[in-house]
Every structure is written in C-alpha cells, then in structure tokens.
Amino acid sequence: MGWYNVFKNTKINYFLIDMGMAIAPLIYFYVKSITTSNFKFNKKNWWHFAPIFLLITFRLSIYVYDSLQPGFEATQNGVLKLSADEAVVAPMHMFVSFAQMLLYLAFTFQLFYNYRKRITAYFSNTYKLELNWILSFLILFTALFLYSSLQSIIGSLVVDLNYQQRWWLNIFMALVVLFIGIKGYFTDTTKLNKLSFSFSPNPESIPQVLEHKNEVSKIDIETVSKFMQTEKAYLNPDLNLADLANLLQMNRSELSKIINTGFNKNFNDFINEYRVNTFKEKLKLGAHKQLSLLGIAYDCGFNSKATFNRVFKKMTQTSPSEFLNSQTK
Questions:
Q1: What are the sequence ranges of the domains in the chain?
Q2: Residues 32, 42 contacting (CB under 8 angstroms)
Q3: How many C-beta neighbours within 10 Å does residue 25 have?
Q4: Residues 329, 326: Cα–Cα separation, whole Å
Q5: How far apart are CA 235 and CA 227, in angstroms?
Q6: What is the rounded distance in angstroms from the CA atom of residue 116 to the CA atom of residue 110?
Q7: Residue 191: what pLDDT?
Q8: What are phi and psi of 138, to 5 degrees?
Q9: Per-residue confidence (pLDDT) for residue 126, from 0 to 100
Q10: What is the pLDDT of residue 313?
C-alpha cells in the first residue's frame, strides 16, 4: 500500500500483532458456549489466552525500551525490535501459532461431534439442533487457515507476495466471520442452554447397575414398550429423554440404559422408529389420499422434512415416495 514509503519512520510494526493465538481459543469457547448446557466462562479459561497476552506485553515492553534509545524517532524499528522480535520471537511465533491453531481446531471439531452424539441420545427431533452452520464454518475456517499457512510458506521461502496477492485471504476470512456472526446472532439456542445433557445414575440404583452392568430387566423393557404403544408419546415432536422419563416416572439414566441396552438403540432412533412405523401404517390406511407425505410425517411426530427424509431412508433404505410407489403397485 506504500505505507512504509510515505511514513519512513513509522512505528506501526510494533503494533501489528497476529491475533491467531487469540482467535484459536475464541473459536473453541464460542462453539463450547453454544453446545454445552449452562456454559460459563470462568477464571481458569483465561489461561487459554496467556500466549497472546504474553506477545502483547512483549511488544509493548520492547517498544518502551526502544523508544528510550537515541535515534529512535528517525527509524522504523529499534534495536530490540530487530534483534529480539524479528530475529527470534517472530519465527517462534509463526510455528507456535500454527501448532496452536491446529490443536484448537482439533479440539473444536471433537467438541462439536461429541455434541452431535449427545443430542441423539437426548432429543427425538434434532434437525433444528444439529447446528450445521457451525460445521460449515469450521470447515471453511480450516480451509482458509491451511491456505494462509501455505501463503506464508510461499511468501517466506519462495517469492515475496505483495498486498494485492495476499488480499484474497483477507476478504474470504471477513466473509466467513460475517457468516458465523449473522448465523450465531439469529440462531435460538435457549433450549440447549436450559437443558443438562450430563446425568448419572440415581445413587440408590448404583449397586444394581454395578452388579448387572449389561443387564436390563425384561419388565422394564415391556413397560417402556407398552407405554409407547398405548400412550404414543412419540407423536410429540418436542419429546426428549427427560420428558419421556417423567412420563414413565423413571430417572433419565435409568431410561437411557433401558433404551440403549434393552432395545439396542439410542434415544433418537428408538423414538423415530415408532414414527416411521406409524407413517407406514397410515399409508396402508390410505392417508396419502388426503394428505401429502410431509403432512403425514408431521402427524407422526416429525418436525421437519429434512429429518423425516433422512430418518426414513436410514431405517428403510428407500425414500418415502419410493416406498409409497412400491406399496401401491
């Protein structure tokens, strides 16, 4: 941009700080705040930002020292800026920042996929809670991070890249940040913040759980199965593990164990299997003559077309329309 030619004694180099070491933990805690029930940022979490605080403190310290040296006003970079920062700290910072970003991105992806597993164990309809926009953001940001790393390697070892050549990374990064900001602002996560995904067995049942760790009473299995058939709780599109446990007068861990071990399914598959079977029964009774397939799906407890199509395909290996055609031939 010609800045250094116009302002030949500028001190801007002291304050051009790469914020990658702050962005890495920020992304991790942003995703954690959305995917973790009742998450609160505490004092211990500030240690994740220690590297960037150290870098800022170092830059300010060498600026103060260099500013006290004779001839500082006539130059761009003082003695410590050249001998300490650019010669030693800057190369170290590049490798540390790269490693830190990779580490935090790995932790964030792991955090997100663990969240995906938890919601299938807790909610019967997960489409509005899957937060696919976060996954899209993480993939885009990772791609831009790798592009940035490649650009830095080329700029340092192969050929010096000018501002116009580096500009594309900045505009794409700005677009990705705007994307996550807008999606995050307009996404309602209050349902997640009010629920607790973590639960442990009732203390009274712990001895029994330890003694028969892999066993579930046939009576409990029959109780849950009979309740689902008679009360049709699966017709409630907002049904979750806690709701069903309250209806059955069980605790969540007890019901989860019965579903996981007794029926060999997670909660999401357990409920949606009833919905798919009910959908099939309605087709046999000719419900498709009065309602659309999506309308029938809504009557069976689904709350979105995407969830219905995905679940139906998973459980029947065919689409709803293909299934209907096979039944009417």
A1: 3-193, 205-328
A2: no
A3: 24
A4: 6
A5: 13
A6: 10
A7: 63
A8: -60, -40
A9: 87
A10: 94
Residue type, 168: W
Segment 202-216, tens digit of pLDDT: 444 334 433 444 567
Torsion region of 21: left, alpha or beta (phi above 0 gives left; psi -120 to 50 gives alpha): alpha
| Closest C-alpha among 320, 308, 307 to residue 130 | 307
Q: Which residue, chain included where needed, has tokens 């890249």?
A: 161
4 vs 10: CA distance, rounded Å: 7
8 Å CB contact between 144 and 172 = yes
**Helix ranges restricted to H, 127-266:** 132-153, 163-186, 190-193, 206-211, 218-231, 241-248, 252-257
Structure tokens given for 53: 């605080």
Task: Give the number of C-alpha atoms closer than 13 A to the C-alpha of residue 54, restricted to the C-beta side.
Answer: 12
Q: Are 281 and 267 in contact (CB under 8 A)?
A: no
Six-digit token pair at 268?
């999401």
- Write out the two tokens for 97: 């920042």
- List all residues 6 or more positions away from 309 whose beta carbon is below 8 Å from its beta carbon: 319, 320
Please tell me the distance from the alpha carbon of residue 49 to that of residue 195, in angstroms, as a whole number: 29
Largest CA distance in the chain: 94
* Residue 310 to residue 299: CA distance in whole angstroms: 17
**Partners of 240 in beta bridges:** 123
Tens of pLDDT, residues 7-20: 778 888 899 888 88
81 CB-side CA count, 13 A: 22
- Residue 124 is classified by DSSP as S
Residue whose token pair is 């993939």? 139
Residues 6+ apart with CB under 8 A from 86: 77
pTM: 0.80
Which residue stretches of the chain have pLDDT < 50?
Answer: 199-213
CATH number of 205-328: 1.10.10.60
Q: What is the pLDDT of residue 198?
A: 54
